[in-house]
Design a protein that fits this description.
alpha/beta; Rossmann fold; binds phosphoric acid mono(formamide)ester
Length: about 325
């Protein structure tokens, strides 16, 4: 397969340039415009209807799995899935590496969510050395990366700030379990590509963002602060990115550490202190860290993030298979 020089594997947030981020966001905008009509949907579903995808999700997922599934459907791609390794020959002792290499024999690309950090990168390197080096998309790996979530977060922020000069110059507060939240880590890398974006990391000390991210931000000259008091920062930021306690990692970490969730939750009572044009984000799923009553506030963007994820993933898959030109041509030819 001919490789798009802009993207082949999608493995880490650091791989994306600012130029790429704008291109994928523009493409997602065009795709959603095309998708407004039956003819447009029919066109989109013809673009990659000769391709097949494997969704290998051995960690739970609702949004990422279904949005990739829907994205493939929109592009006419047929999908297969393994979500429970007990249904594959891994139970007979086959290694995960051999399992995924087997997928590459049958499918044109692999979308994977895996509990091990760097697993997608390892698989991409392995496949690169075989006769079937199919694209690998990291749909969440360990506690380290969730690059496609970060793409949809950037897309949501870009749309939210489209009448306010874009993402440049804005301030973003990340709140909650930052130590084990892979979405935060990937988005911190991407926000570093924008000009004068200030990042606040708001968490109890034992749940703070990893030193590796802070080191990266230092090397990129990014302005950031590490804080514990959430309520104090609310009036000062343009975006609040809430996250839940990631306690599914407790057994792996051997930790029972907890924090007072009330101090790191956004409630209806907090809304008057938010800037009138601020936005509230959350990768979801949520627990109590955003009260359900907040959903009705026009600044709440997390349900839009869910939908935006599908459009960005359509754009991502289209780019991996070098179909961005076809989409732009259809868009222009139909005066959209
Ligand atoms: N945001 C996210 O990754 O959600 P899921 O775990 O439901 O895929």
């Amino acid at each position: 397969m001919e490789r798009n020089s802009k993207i082949f594997h999608c493995l880490t947030a650091q791989q994306f340039s600012r130029e790429f981020l704008h291109e994928i966001c523009d493409l997602a905008d065009r795709i959603r415009d095309i998708a407004r009509t039956k003819a447009g949907m029919e066109y989109l579903s013809s673009i990659l209807n000769h391709k097949r995808a494997m969704l290998y999700f051995v960690q739970p997922s609702t949004r990422t799995f279904l949005s990739f599934y829907s994205a493939c459907q929109i592009l006419g791609i047929r999908c297969a899935e393994v979500r429970d390794p007990k249904t594959s020959s891994e139970v007979k002792g086959e290694s995960e590496e051999d399992t995924v290499r087997t997928f590459s024999s049958y499918f044109d690309f692999i979308i994977m969510r895996h509990p091990k950090a760097n697993f997608a990168e390892k698989i991409a390197q392995l496949l690169n050395k075989t006769e079937r080096p199919v694209p690998v998309i990291n749909a969440g790996s360990g506690k380290d990366q969730h690059p496609t979530q970060a793409l949809l977060d950037i897309y949501t922020l870009r749309r939210s700030f489209s009448h306010r000069g874009g993402i440049d110059g804005k301030s973003v507060a990340f709140v909650g379990d930052l130590l084990r939240g892979r979405t935060i880590r990937s988005l911190a890398y991407l926000l570093a590509k924008f000009e004068d974006v200030k990042q606040y990391f708001v968490a109890p000390p034992e749940f703070q963002i990893g030193e590796d991210i802070l080191k990266y931000l230092d090397s990129a000259g990014v302005n950031y602060e590490v804080l514990t008091n959430f309520k104090k920062i609310i009036p000062h930021v343009d975006a609040i990115y809430m996250t839940r306690l990631q306690d599914e990692w407790d057994a792996v970490d051997g930790t029972k550490a907890r924090f007072d969730l009330e101090h790191y939750s956004l409630t209806e009572q907090d809304l008057p202190s938010l800037k009138p044009d601020a936005v509230i984000l959350h990768p979801l799923p949520r627990r109590q860290e955003i009260a359900v009553e907040v959903d009705a506030d026009p600044r709440a963007m997390y349900w839009r993030q869910v939908r935006n994820g599908m459009w960005v993933r359509v754009a991502l898959v289209a780019m991996i298979f070098s179909r961005e030109k076809n989409i732009v041509e259809y868009y222009l030819n139909n005066n959209l």
